[in-house]
Design a protein that fits this description.
Helix content: over 70%
Number of domains: 1
Strand content: under 5%
Number of strands: 0
Largest sheet: none
Shape: globular
Number of helices: 5
Length: 98
């Protein structure tokens, strides 16, 4: 799915999209508490679980709120959103290292 396909979806602010946007990053924020554990392996596992839960919330929220019930469309949207987020995070890391 490309960005033009995303613009064709019937999305509206009245249908709960603002709440989905607010709730989606919560597992990643809570996974940062794993940094209090002095074990690198546990920190990595907790971070991966946080990202996975965030993707799951986004995927199931898109399926519930959009009129389309196709798994491929919802998966494409999740892949696009997470991909853009990872690119932005990599850019911020590069700025921090410079």
């Amino acid at each position: 799915m490309n960005l033009h396909g995303l613009s064709q979806l019937p999305l509206s602010a009245e249908r709960g999209w603002p709440e989905l946007v607010k709730i989606r990053p919560v597992p990643m924020w809570l996974s940062s508490l794993g940094l209090l554990i002095p074990n690198l392996f546990a920190c990595v596992i907790i971070a991966i679980v946080g990202v996975g839960l965030s993707c799951g919330i986004l995927y199931h929220g898109i399926l519930a709120l959009s009129r389309t019930r196709e798994d491929v469309v919802a998966g494409g949207i999740v892949q696009t959103v997470i991909g853009v987020g990872l690119v932005a995070r990599a850019f911020l890391w590069l700025l921090a290292l410079a």
